[in-house]
TrEMBL record, chain A:
Topology term for the membrane: Multi-pass membrane protein
Source species taxonomy: Bacteria, Bacillati, Bacillota, Bacilli, Bacillales
Keyword hit for NAD: no
Protein keywords: Cell membrane, Membrane, Transmembrane, Transmembrane helix, Transport
Source domain of life: Bacteria
Gene name linked to the record: oppB
Record-given protein name: Peptide ABC transporter permease
Taxonomic source organism: Oceanobacillus neutriphilus
From TrEMBL, chain B:
Protein's UniProt keywords contain Transmembrane helix: yes
Stored Gene3D superfamilies: MetI-like
Designated name of the protein: Peptide ABC transporter permease
Lineage: Bacteria, Bacillati, Bacillota, Bacilli, Bacillales
Domain ABC transmembrane type-1 positions: 91-283
Subcellular location: Cell membrane
Automatic annotation (TrEMBL), chain C:
Gene3D superfamilies in the cross-refs: Dipeptide-binding Protein, Domain 3, Periplasmic binding protein-like II
This protein's name: Peptide ABC transporter substrate-binding protein
SUPFAM superfamilies assigned to the protein according to its UniProt record, in alphabetical order: Periplasmic binding protein-like II
InterPro entries per record: Opp4A (IPR050034), Peptide/Ni-bd (IPR030678), SBP_5 (IPR039424), SBP_5_dom (IPR000914)
Pfam family name, one: SBP_bac_5
Protein keywords: Signal, Transport
Region (Disordered): 30-56
């Protein structure tokens, strides 16, 4: 087991290096740079040129890459030009927001998906099942950004139940109870919008798992032995169907990443997704590269996690 | 299922395509969806031949944001441009992108998967590592970076960019099927008879996984239309005079458009929903057809 | 399978929704067709579509820039910073480069010098000044009562320190160019001197500055007036200052409010600085938060914010009636949009414009002038911007009251005149394709670079192209599309790599407090993207900042001549001037949105009641 993990990690290493080269080069070839946004008759072009030179923006990309790599080895992701601070510090400012948002949406996803999936599978072909399936069809077809816009509109503005932007109310002391509550409160609506859309695949999956398991021999045997219907479901079917869902957990991370980009944009929620979009537009190359790298690592780890869970729950998949 | 198909092959039973079609006709919903898709596609591609794109995106200062009327069936946007015409061209572009991406990634993915699965061994090993790499790329972000790097992109280049990041799923799927297929008797038999690898792949293995390919590609189509509109929404899609459903929809980010001028974005939103639902319905029916256990008879 | 039935029902429901939609649209035909037909036919009648808000035309003259009243004691003000991204958080005048940051700094810090309504320095600021007869030596005296928020006095050394930091080779902000006019600053920057020769601290409160040249620009914003507290920053290496906590977490200033807390990128809370040198502020606290342009209307409506720094003017017509709890203030914006003609390239080696009229498609002034006549900018202003932008005349916006010359006659929309000019100049349609060829009979296709941004960018670009088509000039978008912001400036030459395929471009400048236009249209400036130069132009620009121009009247005359000359030569022509709108809640009083100095200052702003007024 440990051998497997170590080997997988070894494989991911060249992946990450390659990803970094790819992103770095692509970022360099984007038109403009971080100083383009400063075009202003009140700022002398000479001063900008001095900054370009100082930041090494005039060097060829491979020189810049080697510089960057040198910093990376020491854990330094470079400086954000726009924010005038270390990328590591900048990202750690935002990363908690995105993690919180992801957690909230994951929790909501499972809270909603599991009961709905079970109901839908247990009472398949009932009107209730049809309604749930119908919902998952609609959810499948609704782009997340449209849904998020509507949710923001209805619950944020029309009903005024939730804050409509930001990650925390202004002026609260970081660390106080109120601060954390406010953080959570701000993450609820965006998290819920991701969850309500992303539940559909889990619901469908769970449903068909349960429908399948229902007809398996051991269930029929259990029934024949006189186990109550609830017991059959809770003890046998549910547990059996849930395992693959658990294994998908890791992959959820990958899909969450693209979800947060959209939702953070709609809700002006200052997480990493929004930071990414702003940095691309502002040509803050070091931030762009660092973020893509981080997200890449997150999905690599997610995939690894899935494989590990899968190998634990399903002994048939042997790890070589 | 593979055994089923193989057996049918021996008995000269209906081909995979026939089974798919038969299942499709049994499922009324899927049939309606299919007809809807065909009609919409024929309509937008047909009518856009007669529409002058420049006319539609031409600006009319004196018809800005007019509500639907006789003159403009779906009103005009803030440039005084006809929304209905944009909707048609937009649907055409979105569909074209969806189909192109699906085709490009499909063809590439299939070739990749078949080669990898069929040859196996070291080749397979290397090819699979490459796929592993692509699978974990945060592709939405890479596409965004890519789009901002490419100075001018058209429907074709945009499709290529998207296809570059969406062929892995299908390649993987095809590979595993090809692995299974080649172990089956008929492929092994051919090999001993001296049939070339090429022939075995294209004449024998591939036809047997057609149904799977069609299903996967149909479902990919829906995902690609969705992705395109998402990118347009984030501002990394097409310029306005190449409208897509996504660009029309992204007008809704302007709060006044969202609140007061539904005719600009609502038709596009509904059309996206309908298209994705329809594609999905067809895809699901095909999936059932491909899976003998779930077939409806 | 029953599952199919409900899905089917859903699908049919969707189809029906679609049909209903179609029905809606055809249903409203009857109600609306008359008005829209009319609207199409009569170009003059702007009021015809009365129910359609987009037909309204506003006039900036109807807006007041100021809201006065009797405030209550204390209270909290919620200020919205309209931004589509987070603020960068470099909260110090000496280091910021982000416009959003400066909006925040304005609350808690200020310059030592104050300006009058023509942006010339006055003696009312935190520092007073004297100047020698030559006009190049200034002696500043900082008032005794001016203190930093931590109670330390603001000293001459703090001021000197700020300038030294700006000139330091390790400095990572964009303001070095603001101090190069001081004697010895460049030597200090290049490491040739240990101190700046032109700075002399006479005593704690007195600083003498010597400049290389005397020019009127010095007095209108040409002196760096932002001190940096030396006792705080002394021990921080210059390269680390902008990322230090003293700039980002606990920024310090000398303004009417103190920073209480910062949520990075999102919000800032302020409390009043009781020790403020002009007097105790009215408000107890100010809460500033970032509001997305998409949600600003709702935030104002519910009273979530009392006011915002600037309101997206395109939203105004739709919301002016529903926002009953808000008064809209308005004033002239400091910017203008323009169309420029590329007539050369940038000579990187010599750092100057390399004009090449021969090989430029737009080298002919008659062609350029005709293209100006072809554009109906008043219609653009009324239709796209509801009158909140309007036809521009000269390159010195009316914002510069002293210098802007109304009397100059500039080309306004007249297609017949444009056709006439082109006919006379020999541009004729030889091959009968509907477009004119150039006088040599060669095909003329102009490549037009225009930038993305905002809803109107694309329609406006298309409208211009259509207008030029009307006079037979074929114009095509570069790459067939709008260019992304970064791409655009790269290609029109922000770094001197001009794209030879661009013949025309449109852009906008936000002008500075100093009227001197050399930085935009001079022969040695990279921002002169037209790459046009001309002796007369150079002469006028130089005269405008000469010693003689210390005399206001002389300077006015020079710039009037310059404006006229530019209208004559048309290397570039302005298209529209802009208005700036800022809504304030009814409870807010003593607020003035003008940039220039006014009787009302930030410490005087107040509220009349504890709770914001909410829209009905």
């Amino acid at each position: 087991m440990w051998k497997f993990i170590v080997r997988r990690l070894l494989v991911t290493f060249p992946q990450i290096v390659f990803l970094s080269v790819l992103v770095f080069v692509m970022a360099q070839f984007m038109p403009g740079d971080a100083l383009t946004g400063l075009i202003d008759p009140n700022i002398s072009p000479e001063a900008l040129e001095i900054q370009r030179e100082r930041l090494g923006l005039n060097n060829p990309w491979y020189v810049q890459y080697v510089d960057w790599l040198g910093g990376l080895v020491q854990g330094d992701l470079g400086q954000s030009f726009r924010f005038k601070m270390d990328v590591t510090a900048l990202i750690s400012e935002r990363v908690m927001n995105t993690i919180l948002l992801s957690l909230v949406s994951l929790i909501f996803t499972y809270l909603i998906a599991i009961p709905l999936g079970i109901i839908s599978g247990r009472y398949n072909d009932s009107p209730l099942d049809s309604a749930i399936t119908g919902y998952s069809y609609l959810g499948f077809a609704t782009p997340i950004f449209i849904f998020a816009l509507v949710v923001l509109w209805v619950f944020g503005f029309m009903l005024g139940w939730f804050p409509t932007s930001g990650s925390v109310a202004p002026g609260l002391d970081a660390g106080s109870m109120e601060y954390y509550i406010s953080k959570l409160y701000h993450a609820l609506l965006p998290g819920l919008s991701i969850a309500l859309i992303s539940v559909v695949s889990t619901i469908q999956y769970l449903r068909s798992e349960i429908v399948d398991t229902k007809q398996k021999d051991f269930i029929i045997t259990a029934r024949a032995k006189g186990a109550s219907e609830n017991r059959v479901y809770n003890k046998h079917i549910f547990r059996n169907s849930l395992l693959p869902i658990a294994a998908f957990f890791g992959w959820e991370i990958t899909s969450l990443i693209s979800g947060t980009v959209f939702v953070e944009r709609v809700f002006s929620y200052p997480g990493m997704g929004l930071l990414f979009l702003e940095s691309v537009t502002g040509r803050d190359f070091s931030v762009v590269t660092a973020l893509v790298l981080l997200f890449g690592i997150a999905s690599i780890l997610g995939a690894l996690l899935s494989d590990i869970i899968l190998s634990i729950v399903d002994p048939r998949i042997r790890i070589k | 299922m593979e055994a089923d198909i193989a057996k049918m092959k021996e008995q000269k039973s209906p081909s995979a395509i026939n089974i798919l079609l038969r299942e499709l006709f049994r499922d009324k919903l899927a049939l309606v969806s299919l007809i809807f898709l065909i009609l919409i596609t024929a309509f937008v591609f047909g009518i856009s031949i007669f529409l002058d794109k420049n006319e539609i995106v031409s600006v009319d200062l004196f018809a800005i944001n007019t509500p639907p009327s006789d003159q403009f069936i779906l009103g005009t946007d803030y440039g005084g441009r006809d929304v209905f015409g944009q909707l048609i061209i937009g649907t055409r572009n979105s569909l074209a992108i969806g189909i192109l991406v699906t085709l490009i990634s499909g063809v590439f993915g299939i070739a990749y998967g078949v080669i990898s699965g069929y040859f196996g061994g070291q080749i397979d090993n290397v090819l699979m590592r490459v796929i592993d790499f692509f699978m974990v790329l945060p592709f939405l972000m890479i596409i965004i970076v890519f789009v901002s790097m490419t100075r001018d992109y058209s429907v074709v280049t945009f499709s290529l960019i998207m296809a570059a990041f969406s062929w892995m799923g299908i390649a993987r799927l095809i590979r595993s099927k090809a692995l299974q297929e080649k172990e089956l008797d008929y492929a092994q038999a051919s090999k001993t008879l001296g049939t070339s690898n090429f022939n075995i792949i294209f004449k024998q293995v591939l036809p047997n996984i057609t149904s799977l390919i069609i299903v996967t590609m149909t479902l990919n189509l829906a995902a690609n239309i969705g992705l395109e509109s998402g990118l347009s929404f984030l501002g990394f899609g097409f310029p306005e005079d190449t409208p897509s459903l996504g660009t029309l929809l992204s007008y809704a980010t302007n709060p006044q458009t969202l609140e007061f001028r539904w005719w600009i974005w609502a038709p596009a939103a509904i059309l996206i929903l309908l298209l994705m639902l329809a594609v999905r319905n067809v895809g699901e029916a095909l999936r059932r057809a491909a899976d003998a256990r779930q077939r409806r008879g | 399978m029953r599952k199919a039935t409900i899905s089917k029902a859903l699908f049919i429901m969707m189809l029906m929704m679609f049909l209903v939609l179609a029905a809606c649209s055809s249903g409203s035909d009857d109600a609306d067709d008359s008005s829209s037909d009319e609207g199409n036919g009569e170009s003059e009648d702007t009021g015809s579509d009365s129910e359609d808000t987009d037909g309204k035309v506003y006039d900036i003259a109807d807006f007041s820039p100021i809201k006065e009243g009797e405030p209550m004691d204390g209270g909290n003000l919620n200020f919205g910073l309209v931004a589509d991204s987070v603020f960068a958080g470099t909260l110090n005048y000496n280091f910021y480069s982000d416009a959003y940051d400066s909006e925040i700094i304005d609350w808690f810090d200020e310059g030592l010098l104050s300006v009058d309504d023509t942006f010339n320095y006055t003696q009312d600021g935190a520092a007073t000044w004297e100047v020698n007869d030559e006009g190049n030596e200034f002696t500043f005296t900082i008032r005794d009562e001016v203190n930093w928020h931590d109670g330390e006095p603001v000293t001459a050394e703090d001021w000197e320190f700020a300038i030294e930091v700006l000139a330091d080779p390790d400095y990572d902000g964009p303001r070095y160019g603001d101090v190069t006019s001081i004697v010895g600053a460049e030597e200090y920057h290049d490491g040739e001197a240990d101190s700046i020769e032109g700075l002399e601290v006479i005593d704690d409160k007195t600083l003498k500055m010597t400049f290389k040249h005397a020019t009127p620009s010095l007095l209108s914003g040409g002196i760096w007036g932002y001190a940096l507290p030396k006792h705080i920053f002394e021990d921080i290496p210059v390269a680390d200052m902008s990322s230090s906590d003293e700039v980002r977490v606990n920024p310090i200033g000398m303004g009417p409010f103190k920073v209480e807390s910062i949520t990075p990128g999102e919000s800032v809370t302020f409390s009043k600085n009781e020790d403020y040198w002009k007097g105790e502020p009215n408000l107890d606290t100010v809460t500033l938060k970032v509001i997305a342009p998409e949600t600003v209307t709702q935030a104002l409506e519910t009273g979530e914010v009392d006011m915002v720094d600037s309101f997206p003017t395109d939203q105004y017509p739709d919301v002016e009636e529903s926002l009953t709890n808000v008064e809209f203030l308005g004033t002239l914006d400091r910017s203008y949009s323009y169309v420029g003609f590329k007539m050369g390239t940038w000579d990187k080696e010599n750092g100057k414009v390399a004009m090449d009229l021969e090989n430029s498609k737009v080298g002919d002034v008659e062609l350029r002038r005709a293209m100006w006549y072809a554009l109906d900018n008043n219609a653009v202003g009324e239709r796209f911007y509801n009158g909140l932008r309007w036809n521009a005349t000269t390159l010195m916006p009316s914002f510069y009251e002293n210098y802007h010359d109304d009397s100059i006659e500039t080309p306004t929309y007249d297609p017949d005149k444009a056709n006439q000019i082109l006919d006379d100049a020999g541009y004729e349609d030889v091959d009968g394709d509907g477009f004119r060829e150039n006088p040599d009979g060669e095909e003329l296709v102009l490549n037009y670079a225009s930038m993305e941004g905002g809803d109107t960018a694309e329609p406006l670009t298309n409208y211009y192209i259509q207008s030029w088509e009307q006079i037979g000039i074929k114009v095509e978008k570069t790459d067939g599309r709008l260019l992304e912001f970064n791409d655009f400036y790269d290609r029109i030459g922000q770094q001197g790599n001009d794209d030879p395929d661009i013949d025309i471009y449109s852009a906008a400048w936000s002008v500075g407090t100093d009227v001197d236009p050399t930085g935009l249209w001079g022969p040695n400036v990279i921002y002169n993207f037209t790459r046009w130069e001309d002796e007369e132009n150079t002469r006028l620009l130089e005269e405008g900042v000469s010693e003689e121009a210390m005399d206001l009247e002389y300077r006015e005359d020079v710039y009037k001549e310059w404006q006229e000359y530019m209208v004559d030569q048309v290397p570039v022509f302005p298209t529209v001037y802009r208005a700036k709108l800022a809504p304030v809640n009814e409870r807010v009083v003593n607020w003035d949105i003008r940039d220039e100095a006014t009787e009302l200052e930030r410490y005087e702003v107040g509220v009349t009641q504890d709770e914001p007024v909410v829209a009905e």
